[in-house]
Amino acid sequence: PLFEPEEDQPEKRCCCLLRCFPRHSAAETQRHPSNYRQPHGHPSTPVCSRSAVILICSFSSRAGAVVNLTFDDASVLAAIDLLQPGSLRYPGGSVANSWNITNGRWVDNETNIYAQRTRAYPPGFARRASSFLFFFFHCSYFFLAFSTLAQGTFTPSKYMSGLGKRLRAAPIWNLNLMTLTPAQQLEQLDVLQADGVPVHYLELGNEIVGGCAKPDYLQTIIPVVKKARTLFPQAKIAIIGYWYSYAQGLPDWWTCCTELAKYRDYFDAITVHQYAPSNQTILLYPPDQWRTATLGTAWALLRYHATIVHWAMINTTQGVPPIWLDEYNWGGNWTGQVTWPEETHGALRGLLLASFIISAANLGQDVFSSLNYYSLFHQNSSDWSKWASCLDVPDTANQPDLIRVDGVAQVFTHLTHLAFGRGLTHLESLQTQLSAAGTVPLNLVNSTAVPCLQGMRFSSDTASAEAVVVLNVCNRAVPCAVPVADAESASYRVHQYSAAADAAGVVGGWVLLRSIQHTHSPPWVGGPLPVNSTTWKSGHWDFLPLSLTILEN
């Protein structure tokens, strides 16, 4: 049921992460985890049996800079209904560190760089107001003259009475532990309780300036967590972990993670933000491997982060926490230039989104229990998240007919439709079944090869319906037996999205939503990306190079 945390069900829990990596002696586990290379290709045993996506898992998502619309604006609600995100973060990422949940406004006298990043209207009005749907990343306050968007417009209760009630799971409430007084930090929890909003997931701030595991931050969380445990004993609480976004390579966060382990009693999950690959990283490979390196990145990176967290936390009393990957995309402009700038609204980034979901599903929800894509929305008047978003919300209130979508939204909605539209809310790894397809040599993080075919199955406990999703990261077609459960009797609809350089429509772009058919029953007709649709009954299937194939019965 909506907003009910899933009970601990042993039959749905993933296997121990030790089965995913080489075993070592007790003395060896104290060494730096980067010494341990992960198995090439796929693990010898499935990493996870089944994961419930209805929690806050694979389709939890973030919106972006929408600066002058309320939580119940018609365009906002139409966008949420289209994309069907499982959950969202309130008030989001960087904005959380300057936000006051108590009154739904920016902290008094707060100024920061985000004020310069997104401005729907020019500055210079007489009074400052926090009139925007800070939805939910890299926004700031603006000089607006809207008296109707007053204090209280953007509180948690208003959020839940608007878009919040359209979500499949409770939102992640991201607390401000940076710019509020200690008393105000605690007051945030009182407000959430008084408002009667569902509090099942709490996040302890966003991206600490100065680095991970700062001593003052670690001391700050203690009274907040103690009160949260009292008021919301069932809530899962996440601490800030890895969030660096380098132009090339990955910094080592082993030291940070081992420091966080000392405070393991105060959190249930650890957050990771990952924007990769960058153009600088892609250029390290031959041109014919650029797209493979792009789509293979998630496979290697998620295993890297899982390894770090595992070895840092394995000896704690509470054990290894799951990771909330609550921001992910490819490289943004802070890495020098947006990755693949000509294709940021096309098939390649749509398949990158799918690659993160598939890679997380293959590790299981005990390892990655939340994925939050950055970002869903933007407005033309707000530049900050244009490169990252997949849906364009109009600047004028209540005009859903002007919504535009790109190729990433087309892939996103197809996947969320499988889970939430069709009710196939369990994910299952298919890597063992796809192992015959082989690997491609690729030095990414601690991996020297990634599987050509990466896949997952959507299914339900109450029906025989299923959907198999297979990503081919290699630049060649790969024939393979199709890992469906009902291959003997059922006929499957097959839909293919191609990110090959020579594929028709690979660049995607923006299309008015109202001009597209079947938006609520994908695949779309007339969308930014062409979709090759056919049927399959039995035998092998040739998975096209650099493609995402979805088979549904």
Structure in words:
21% of the residues lie in helices and 19% in strands. The chain is α/β, with parallel strands linked by helices and 553 residues long. The strands form six sheets. It has a seven-stranded antiparallel beta sheet with strand order 1-14-17-18-24-20-22, with helices on one face. A seven-stranded parallel beta sheet has the order 2-5-6-7-8-9-10, covered by helices on one side. Strands 11-12-13-21 form a four-stranded mixed beta sheet. Helix 7 packs parallel to helix 8 and helix 8 (347-363) runs parallel beside helix 9 (407-421). The chain is globular, with a radius of gyration of 22 Å.
Residue share in helices?
10-25%
DSSP summary: helix tally: 9
Strand order of the largest sheet: 1-14-17-18-24-20-22
- End-to-end separation in angstroms reads 25 Å
Oligomer: single chain
* Beta-strand residue percentage: 15-25%
Largest sheet: 7 strands, antiparallel
Which blocks of ≥5 consecutive residues have pLDDT under 50? Answer: 1-60, 113-148
Average residue pLDDT: 81
Radius of gyration: 22 Å
Principal-axis shape equals globular
Q: By helix and strand content, what is the structural category?
A: alpha/beta
Quantity of strands, as a count? 24
Keywords:
globular; disordered N terminus; seven-stranded antiparallel beta sheet; 9 helices; seven-stranded parallel beta sheet; about 550 residues; alpha/beta; single chain
Which SSEs are present, and which pair or pack?
Elements (H helix, E strand, L loop, with lengths): L50 E2 L21 H10 L5 E2 L8 E2 L4 E2 L49 H6 L10 E3 L7 H14 L5 E3 L11 H17 L4 E7 L11 H8 L7 E7 L3 H4 L7 H24 L9 E7 L17 H17 L4 E6 L3 E2 L12 E2 L11 E2 L1 H15 L4 E4 L9 E6 L2 E5 L1 E7 L6 E7 L5 E4 L10 E7 L12 E2 L19 E5 L3 E4 L3 E6 L1
Parallel strand pairs: 2-5, 5-6, 6-7, 7-8, 8-9, 9-10, 11-12
Antiparallel strand pairs: 1-14, 3-4, 12-13, 13-21, 14-17, 15-16, 17-18, 18-24, 19-23, 20-22, 20-24
Helix pairs in contact: 3-4, 5-7, 7-8, 8-9
